[in-house]
Amino acid sequence: MKFEMVMPKMGESIMEGTILKWMKKPGDPVEKDEIILEISTDKVDSEIPAPVSGTLSELLANEGDTVDVGKVIALIETEAASAAATQTVEETPAPRQEPIADTPAPAPTQTAAAPARPRSARFYSPVVMNIANENQIGFDELERIPGSGLNGRVTKKDILKYIAGRGQSAPAPQVQVATPMAPAGFSGADGIEVIEMDHVRKSIAEHMIKSKHTSAHVSLYAEIDMHNISRIRARHKDAFKAREGFSLTFMPFIAEATTQALKEFPMLNASIDGDKILVKHFVNLGIAVAVDYGLIVPNIFHADERNLTGLARAINDLATRARNKKLKPDEVTGGTFSISNFGVYGTSVGFPIINQPQVAILGVGAIKKRPVVINDAIAIRPVMYLSLTIDHRLIDGAMGAQFLQRIGQLLESYDPNMSL
């Protein structure tokens, strides 16, 4: 019998999705839970598994098509379709939590099978990267392979075709050179390369502009001594990683101190609706994560109800699933306060843009050893700069400064002999 695979409902507010890539073509066998396509919404890009095992008999929607939720996008020939499988396509289940590295916003990580590569204007699926790795195709060579997919993406068919003809002729350049004087990879006599924004990048741009036009941005920053927390991490890092399966970073401590401070300063956890102030007596903490297609801010819901280890697990889970495109759109909405950790790139101070409709965002700088004065003596301590951007429509400078100083007090007062 033929099973109808429909565009899955990725969240309560999501009514359509755009097909970015089909991982299979008609006639290919598929296994249940095998990634079969990649879709994009205005919130996230997601990889979608096959709901049943069988043979992909027909594609009813092409790459680049925007399809309403519930509309049939493919037919899978199978002997039987269980009720559980039907339920799977109607709403994508929450992905499994997998303990990997606990770093909220580093450069996107690679899978074990994928070759390390610099950032590229083109997206490469895990399937393409694995094939490239298995055939010793380096990044520079991969960049030269012509792509037939959406926005010039290299498909599985493209890379297999290239491998089949490898050594016979050099691959065609990705972009034609307009003049002999133009640099390779650029078009036009002026050497300007034109790259179309993808769906998610457009949404990010619109969101940032809206925030600057909505909120009266004011920024503050403070210097924090991370000596005690550094000692805690040094004492527990090996045992923690052996127990949890991922590294203990500074971010869970920062998240815990932030949630506690938000309970003491609830206006920082509010939003503005017209002439009304909506104060949330729960903390849905957003943690910014750098991914291939930009920056995304998934939320730890009810973060104030978690202990330090629970926050570490949640941060690791969100970061891992964000980079593997396993987040659901509902996980990037409903936040009450956000943290952006630009310090992982070595930046000491930065002032992030408020994540609407929130009224404040915390920026985390790099932790570096600096000379500080302690009891009239100079000492070397690991120091971090925290910045706070506030919406001056609701939060004045005094309250913002008190909130930021409270986070600093909480971070500096951790007991270095505490147990985890």
What tags apply to this protein structure?
single chain, 420 residues, alpha+beta, OB fold (Dihydrolipoamide Acetyltransferase, E2P), Dihydrolipoamide Transferase, Chloramphenicol Acetyltransferase, 3 domains, six-stranded mixed β-sheet, four-stranded antiparallel β-sheet, 9 helices, 26% helix
Outline the structure in words.
By secondary structure, the chain is α+β, with helices and mostly antiparallel strands. It folds into three domains: 2-90, OB fold (Dihydrolipoamide Acetyltransferase, E2P) (Beta Barrel); 122-194, Dihydrolipoamide Transferase (Irregular), CATH 4.10.320; 201-412, Chloramphenicol acetyltransferase-like domain (Chloramphenicol Acetyltransferase), CATH 3.30.559. It contains nine helices and 18 strands. The strands form five sheets. It has a six-stranded mixed sheet. Strands 1-8-6-3 form a four-stranded antiparallel sheet.
Alpha carbon gyration radius: 24 Å
- SSE class: alpha+beta
Q: How much helix, percentage-wise, in residues?
A: 25-40%
Give the tally of structural domains.
3
CATH superfamily of the largest domain: Chloramphenicol acetyltransferase-like domain
CATH topology of the largest domain: Chloramphenicol Acetyltransferase
SSE blueprint and pairings:
Elements: E1 2-6, E2 16-22, E3 29-30, E4 35-40, E5 45-49, E6 54-59, E7 66-68, E8 72-77, H1 83-90, H2 126-134, H3 139-143, H4 156-164, H5 199-214, E9 217-225, H6 227-244, H7 251-264, E10 270-273, E11 276-279, E12 285-287, E13 289-291, E14 294-296, E15 299-300, H8 308-323, E16 337-341, E17 360-374, E18 377-391, H9 397-412
Parallel strand pairs: 12-16, 16-17
Antiparallel strand pairs: 1-8, 2-4, 2-7, 3-6, 4-5, 6-8, 9-18, 10-11, 12-15, 13-14, 17-18
